[in-house]
Amino acid sequence: MNNSENNSDKIFSDDTHLIQSFADLNNLKQSIGRLAITGAKGVYVTDSEGKRYFDGMGGLWCVNIGHGNADVIAAVTRQLETLDYFSTFFEFTHPVAAELARKLATLAPDRLNHVYFSNSGSVANDTAIRILHHYNNLRGHPKKKKILSRVNAYHGSTYLAIAMTTPVFSQGWDAARDLVHHIRCPKREPDEMNLSDADFIDILAEDMEQAISKIGAENIACFIAEPIMGACGVIIPPEGYHKRMLDLVHAHDIKYISDEVITAFGRLGHMFASKEVFGIEPDIITTAKGLTSGYQPLAATILSDEIFDVISQDGAAFLHGMTYSGHPAACACALANIAVMEREAIPEQVRKTGKLFEAGIKSLADLDLVKEARASHFMAAVEFNRPSGAPDNINIGQLVGDAARARGLIVRPITDAIVLSPPLILSKDQIVEIHQILHDAINAVAQSQF
Ligand code: PLP
């Protein structure tokens, strides 16, 4: 590239060098729909034109403590000045990675005490599968490799994680599909709306049992599940669902991986949701996002003692490694982020303010355009009816997302729905303001002519 082309006015208007994630590259090539965020503070972000928005997505389900926290920034800076980088390969270690691993072992459920660090939720999930496959080889079960996942799951976009993700995210792309079988998720079909939770869970358990008997428990390594399914629209399971699924898979010697990439670090009012919110102790927890509140890329795969004992037995080599596993700056960032959460009692706060946020979202269900409004603490989705006359190619979620953005709130549109996952530090007044914006945006779309 010629230097004279490197003109800051042009960076966002016609840049085709940056390939964006899950984007319509053809639209972006023509500069359709791109929004450049250039600054952030607290619960707000600012775009390249200087317009301020509520960060209704918390970055991407991750900026839990809010933007620009001085303590976290100082901790990362200090760490870079002390030890910028060294690997955790072979015999090498460093204090900050060891300290964070110990901290996570303290916060995670009792049996989960061993932590492998990576840089993204996708890789944390791939790591969990690689380790379980190796574990089964070591136990003399080399065929026990298949993965049970669920329709509407999102587990990331590496070659393996995208295969565990619901297939709609990889249409036209390849994935390691042979390894994965998708069972039902806890989203009710229209004819199941009046079932009791217990009857609905029975149906889901039956679906799981059928999959196990078809594939054969001797061929299945694990079941992977988000406590609340995020990317496909905040699908909240009925009480008792996860416990039933865990008991079922354990009865077949199948491990349970809880993908807490979104739900950990305060989003549901606790540091981890598996045990405190859903009453289960999985065999593996994967997490990322809120671990550093997004200030540094970091993810963790947290293993039970039992799995660790097998993979650390005499003669078992751990042939898995990433240059940046346990990166000092990322680990220092996570420790500082967790310290902020503990000092400011953010999870406890979320149990109060998150409930206010949840109630406000649920009240949107009174609007005609709203089909369903779902929320648990600071995870929320609003699903829309399609107004009569709306052309097939119109996405109502996108229209509401655009209307909210015009009013100063960024949310994430999905098909005929929007999802929200704001920073956990919203004040009561800010929560009311966000609900008012949503209310106005939804009404504006309801009143538009199609
Ligand atoms: N798992 C869940 C539940 C997620 O929501 C995501 C990302 O949104 C991932 C895994 C993948 O994480 P990453 O994008 O950091 O690879």
UniProtKB/TrEMBL annotation:
Protein name: Aminotransferase
Lineage: Bacteria, Pseudomonadati, Pseudomonadota, Alphaproteobacteria, Candidatus Puniceispirillales
Cofactor(s), names only, from the UniProt record: pyridoxal 5'-phosphate
Gene3D superfamilies xrefs: Aspartate Aminotransferase, domain 1, Type I PLP-dependent aspartate aminotransferase-like (Major domain)
Record keywords, A-Z: Aminotransferase, Pyridoxal phosphate, Transferase
Similarity remark: Belongs to the class-III pyridoxal-phosphate-dependent aminotransferase family.
One example GO MF annotation: pyridoxal phosphate binding
Keyword Transmembrane helix attached: no
TM segment ranges: none
UniProt source species: Puniceispirillum marinum (strain IMCC1322)
InterPro entries found in the cross-reference section: Aminotrans_3 (IPR005814), Aminotrans_3_PPA_site (IPR049704), PyrdxlP-dep_Trfase (IPR015424), PyrdxlP-dep_Trfase_major (IPR015421), PyrdxlP-dep_Trfase_small (IPR015422)
PANTHER family noted in UniProt: AMINOTRANSFERASE, AMINOTRANSFERASE CLASS-III
Pfam families listed in its UniProt record: Aminotran_3
